[in-house]
Amino acid sequence: MHDHAGHGADPGTAGGLCAEGLTRYRRAVVKGCTPKEDVPDCLLRLGLLVTPPDDPDVLVPVAPDVALAELVRPIEERLERQRGDVRALTDSFSPVHAIYTVAKREHQGWATEIHGERVIGSTLAHAVRSCRDELMTVQPGGRRLAYDLDDLGHLRAGVHHRALFQHAARSHSATLRHLGELVSAGGEVRTLGHVIDRLVVVDRAVAYIPGAAGDDGRTSALEIRHPDLVAFLAQVFDDAWERAAPVLPDAPRADVADVADDLRRATARLLVAGHTDEAIARRLGISRRTVAGRVARLSAELGSGSRAQLGYLIAMSGMLGDGRA
Do you know which InterPro entries this protein is assigned to (predicted)? Predict the structure, then answer.
């Protein structure tokens, strides 16, 4: 019916009618036409006034429904083309989705969740019995978990077992007996003030780490077989092992000076970091009462009158041994 070329590719984005445009359009509808002089641009942009084929000097009004349809039609055509593009893209991704699903199903063994202490215990026992060369274990806390590894048959089979515990294990009788048994059977045992969470690495091929407890209170673990992840966890163990103090076969109870100093520094470092006594006890695997005693001794030694002042005095004393004040 009329041509909107030259009025812009997307007239709807430029706004609606101005007040003058409304007045001029009403006048054109009443009179049937209007002179071209000083016509508001919004009327031309929205196609509400057009030039009739028999009189180029005037503009005639167009019904709003017709003008709107003319404006909307190219937009709807563009949307339909875009919907077609979406459908084509979706169809092209169908084989990709299929390949991804199959690949994930085939490699779901890279990480497997294990639920329940009994299942975790039997899984770990089987993994240790299957170990051929090297076993790395980390046990945080001063006490052993219910599903700790008690069978030392793997050591008699020539497996090199390195076990990492917290220093707190040296003062817990049941755990200490276990350390002595490991050492006597040929394993290596070392302790640190603070270790990473529980970890078992078998032949640098499979690793076990703890999972989150479920809503029903059950524990869980994760079996990891991805080579890069297992290699990373083994490296984390090796780094911690280098910093740990050995438990000697002839004196597993020895309260060696470096162990005592390490515990003292660990307590001081966590205190400076702002942890409460309860949090420090949890991370070091000792009782809250023991932590309170250590904090009291540090306060007396440094002449502190408050916990905040104690943290400052510890940081300034060089006790942490990290070169920072």
Answer: Sig_transdc_resp-reg_C-effctor, TrmB-like, WH-like_DNA-bd_sf
